[in-house]
Amino acid sequence: MPHLPARRLPVRPRPPLTGLVCVAAAACLLSGCSGGAFGPQPSGPPPDSRTSPAPAGHASGPVVLDERARGTTVQVTTGTLVEVHLHSTYWSTPAGSDPRVLAPSGGGTTPTGTCPPGRGCGVSSGRFTARRPGTAHITARRTSCGEAMRCSPGQERYEVTVTVTP
Questions:
Q1: Cα 164 from Cα 166, distance rounded (Å)
Q2: pTM here?
Q3: Residue 109 pLDDT > 90, yes or no?
Q4: Pair 92, 142: CB distance under 8 Å
Q5: Burial class (CB in 10 A: 0-12, 13-18, 19+), 77
Q6: Are 69 and 149 a contacting pair, CB within 8 Å?
Q7: Number of H-type helices and E-type strands within the chain
Q8: If you ran DSSP here, which 8-state letter would residue 146 be given?
Q9: Are strands 134-141 and 157-165 parallel, antiparallel or unpaired?
Q10: What does R_g of the chain's alpha carbons equal in angstroms?
C-alpha cells in the first residue's frame, strides 16, 4: 500500500471574544472565581475589608468575627465567648495562639448542602472562651481561593488580635 501524504484541514481563526464574555472573564479573574458571574454566590460578608470596625466584647453575649475583622484588634472581658466564622471551606479551622488566654471550645468546617464543586461553599469556624487577661491571636490559612485558583499573598492568611481584660 503506497504512503499517502497527510491531508491538512484548513485552519479557521477563532472569533474574537465578545463584550459579555470579556466582562464575565474579567469578573472571574477579579473575584477569584469563588462565586462567579455564572451562578449563585455564597451568602456572607464581603471578603477582607479592613475598614469595618470590629465589635467590642461583652460578657452578656458572644463576640462574632468574620472576614471583615481581619487585621483588627478586638478587646473582650474574661468569660466572653469569641466566635470566628469564615465564609469558605477553603479556610483552615481558626486556631488560637495561647489557650491560657483564649481557650478553644469547638469549631470546624461545615459545607453547605447544595454547593457546586469547586466553590468552597460553607463556613470554617472556631469558638474560644476568654479565660484570663492577656493577648492572643486567632489565625486561619488557605491556599486556594477558588477551584484551581491559588490565593494571592494578601488573601491566604486571616489574623485577629484579641486582648482580654478583667
A1: 7
A2: 0.64
A3: no
A4: yes
A5: middle
A6: no
A7: 1, 8
A8: S
A9: antiparallel
A10: 23
